[in-house]
């Protein structure tokens, strides 16, 4: 029975320039013979949401065709798609799904289509923590052996989550923090989109970042938490051919 309190969005609109294959959407890149997005969809289905919304953009026709064929093979969870015509950041991407979630009053789990190894058991634990602690929004975190390039999780003296600071904005002390943002979020749907509309694109990329929503919610006294429940390995995204080859090598080693 699908959960009436959970929906999932999957970010799958990116170009993936560093994959060196302009004719293939990054999320359809094969890992061990299977598209990255297929791994994420299979994990999403195991969490039993009410529905899954995939945000498509670059080479959208190929991703939509893949979703159509994938959904024909399953009957358990409805899969919808929305189009992000311009890639203007993760916050802008989620905003495209607003009408698909109209009337939905549960929690929205936000995943990335290029993070194939995230386990459904981790997502179950994350959802449990979010609900048990009665959070309005939650961030899934992990501890990194080398946190360079990742957003750091800042906590107060009592260990309470304060905010996410990006690498480029972190001072020397903050850069030493090895608890990082996984890019996986759980947010109550009824507060998400108002917060998204408050996000500004005043940054080097001129994009609307989903991480800004977390700070907006905290500043408006919503209850926001960060839970280190994932391993560093399972939150790795594929951003380059080197990333893909390294992940394949690790998978093969683990299977030996």
What labels would you give this structure?
Spore Coat Polysaccharide Biosynthesis Protein SpsA, Chain A; alpha/beta; globular; single chain; two-stranded antiparallel sheet; 7-stranded mixed sheet; 31% helix; 256 residues; 11 strands
Could you give a short description of this structure?
The protein is of the alpha/beta class and 256 residues long. 31% of the residues lie in helices and 23% in strands.
Structural notes for this entry:
With 256 residues, the protein is of the alpha/beta class. It has one domain: Spore Coat Polysaccharide Biosynthesis Protein SpsA, Chain A (Alpha-Beta Complex), CATH 3.90.550.10. 31% of the residues lie in helices and 23% in strands. Strands 5-4-1-6-10-7-11 form a seven-stranded mixed beta sheet. A hairpin with a 2-residue loop joins strand 2 and strand 3.
The pLDDT mean sits at 92
Estimated helix fraction: 25-40%
DSSP, total strands: 11
Share in β-strands: 15-25%
What is the top-level CATH class?
Alpha Beta
Domains (count): 1
User: How many individual helices?
Assistant: 8
Instruction: Supply Rg.
Output: 17 Å
CATH architecture heading:
Alpha-Beta Complex
Structural class: alpha/beta
Q: Output the CATH topology.
A: Spore Coat Polysaccharide Biosynthesis Protein SpsA, Chain A
Distance between the termini: 36 Å
Outline the biggest β-sheet: 7 strands, mixed
Order of helices and strands: EEEHEHEHEHEEEHEHHEH
Uncertain segments of ≥5 residues (pLDDT<50)? none
Output the CATH homologous superfamily.
Answer: Spore Coat Polysaccharide Biosynthesis Protein SpsA, Chain A
Quaternary organisation of the protein chains: single chain
The spatial strand order of the largest sheet comes to 5-4-1-6-10-7-11
**Which outline best applies?**
globular
């Amino acid at each position: 029975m699908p959960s009436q309190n959970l929906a999932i969005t999957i970010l799958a609109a990116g170009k993936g320039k560093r994959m060196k294959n302009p004719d293939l959407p990054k999320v359809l890149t094969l890992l061990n013979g299977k598209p990255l997005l297929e791994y994420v969809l299979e994990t999403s289905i195991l969490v039993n949401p009410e529905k899954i919304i995939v945000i498509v953009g670059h080479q959208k026709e190929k991703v939509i065709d893949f979703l159509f064929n994938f959904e024909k093979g399953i009957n358990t969870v409805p899969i919808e798609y929305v189009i992000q015509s311009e890639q203007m950041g993760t916050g802008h991407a989620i905003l495209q799904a607003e009408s698909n979630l109209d009337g939905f009053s549960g929690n929205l789990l936000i995943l990335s289509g290029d993070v194939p190894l995230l386990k459904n058991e981790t997502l179950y634990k994350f959802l449990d923590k979010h609900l048990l602690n009665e959070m309005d929004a939650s961030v899934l975190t992990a501890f990194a052996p080398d946190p360079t390039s990742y957003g750091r999780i800042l906590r107060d003296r009592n260990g309470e989550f304060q905010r996410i600071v990006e690498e480029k904005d972190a001072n020397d002390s903050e850069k030493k923090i090895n608890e990082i943002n996984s890019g996986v979020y759980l947010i109550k749907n009824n507060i998400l989109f108002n917060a998204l509309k408050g996000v500004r694109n005043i940054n080097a990329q001129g994009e609307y970042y989903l991480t800004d929503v977390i700070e907006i919610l905290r500043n408006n006294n919503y209850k926001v938490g960060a839970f280190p429940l994932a391993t560093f390995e399972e939150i790795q995204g594929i951003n380059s051919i080197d990333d893909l080859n390294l992940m394949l090598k690790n998978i093969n080693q683990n299977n030996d």
